Amino acid sequence: MRYFFTLMTVALLLQGCMDKPDGKSVLTGTVDEYDGTGYLLLYNPSAGKGNSSYDTLAVGKNGEFRIELDLQESALRGLYLEYLGDRRNVIYCYMKPGGQLTVRMDGRLAESIEGDGAIESRYINRPEFFGYQYQQPDGTAMPYREFDAAVRRQQDTLRMMLVGAEADFAAAKEQDIEVMNDNMLFVYNRRLGRLGLRAWDDADFRRALYSIDLNDQDNLHRGLMSINTVEAINCRLANMPQLYAGEPSNARFFCFVRDSISDPYVRVALPSHVMSQMINPRKPQNLDRAFEVYHTIVGDTSVYHDIHKRYLDNSSQLLPGQPAPDFEMYDVKGNKVMFSAVIGGGKVTYVDFWATWCGPCVAEIPHLERLVEELKDNNKIRFVSVSLDENVDKWKQSLETDKPSWAQYNIPEAFRSTFAQRYKVNGIPQFMLFDGEGRIIDLNAPRPSNNKIREILIGK
Question: Which CATH superfamily, name and number, covers 328-459?
């Protein structure tokens, strides 16, 4: 994204005060070189998934748009041109009660953001990183001391961008800036790894890594369990393969916690968090030994029994070879159809769970069309798309436009549905494979854009 360092003029501020009605938050703007197609969507990130989290903004022939919101407190909204699909970028707008914010956009990016909330909006839309270097011209690793100095310069730049921002907003972002050093420590480690280099060989890197207090409760309270403490432990384990060498890879983490962390709160919260993350019902793994070590840490407590029960329940129901859990969906005519009636019958079924509002989902459709066309003469393979659109009319309109040649169904309850609960799905796109008997093959099948799915389907 571009920087948004456009200065506000006195005239614009005066005009904004004259235009905004009492008690209303107003978002106005223009789309440069607007071609007259599509419309804008204003997304509410805090409203969760589904059509109800979007407001539609009509764009005039001159590219102008306007919307009024009733806000009791400052709130974030994401603005983008719907018709650009996966090619669009979200422009985040920080809206203040009774304020007016003006955005000039070129269709994908903001050319300028002015008015009430402009400082906060520019900060949120800033580039995430400022061109860090990880490798020197001779191919060796950038010394961590120099990398860390670049991070600290970015911290100073970010603090300057917050001058004049709302106090609560600035305080929250300042906390993020303070922990940036620890976060970027692990970015440095990962990026060097991709280049075939080892951060571990740098004494300054190791010194910074070991300076992280694994018993610090604040790291957990700030939501940094996966970014800070966990990564610090995993980094040590990855570079000390001799440590707990006889243990399964997923149990080594818990062995380390057992022997190295003494704080009573961290000893329970940290391993429980990690074990919960390991329980992925759509990617089952053997956690027996990991659970055994985890049990020695947290004891015979309710949190242990809750997590263990969830592991046993999930892994037994969604393993490959198990019958596909059934659920209701609807065809284009509104008729109820059971999923079990669509899969099986001697055919391998490749199912695409998607929605019209999901950019990555829409981006996969051309690839799926090509896959369907390539395998149209193979009577052992069936293709099915299941939409999670709550706005059924929009889903039907997309079918009328695209005219897909394979079966199409809808689940209007979306992520509140029986499907989402039984399959533990909280995000899309999701592609799944079922065998000719209606049993699970893979609940995380490759996307159509991945050539691996062709190998799998042809091999079946």
Answer: Glutaredoxin (3.40.30.10)
